[in-house]
Specification:
Blueprint: H1 2-105
């Protein structure tokens, strides 16, 4: 009876040890995969950071260009308004001259 008990105990110990070995292997596998994911994440994060910095610099450069264009458009708008004002005065003078000439003929 004692030998049967000892055999059962040895069998249970082996079964438990095999179970712990499987769990340990699973944890090692998970740890390995996690390290791989972390490494890839760090690499990708670095790449995105470089890209974001580059994009921010381009946006700032484009923002400066847009500001310059706004200033140029405002200057052109002012010039067009001045030309329209001068043209209006010149047109009024021409029309007055024509009307004066017509009245002088009558």
């Amino acid at each position: 009876m004692e030998t049967i008990n000892n055999a059962l105990i040895l069998r249970l110990e082996k079964s438990v040890n095999d179970g712990f070995d499987k769990i340990s292997d699973m944890l090692d596998s998970i740890d390995s995969r996690l390290r791989t994911v972390e490494t890839k994440t760090e690499r990708i994060s670095g790449e995105y950071e470089v890209r974001m910095t580059s994009t921010e610099k381009k946006a700032e450069k484009n923002g400066d260009s847009v500001s310059e264009l706004k200033e140029k458009v405002q200057g052109l708008t002012d010039r067009v308004n001045l030309i329209m004002w001068v043209g209006g005065i010149a047109g009024t003078i021409v029309i007055g001259y024509i009307i004066g000439g017509l009245l002088g003929l009558l």
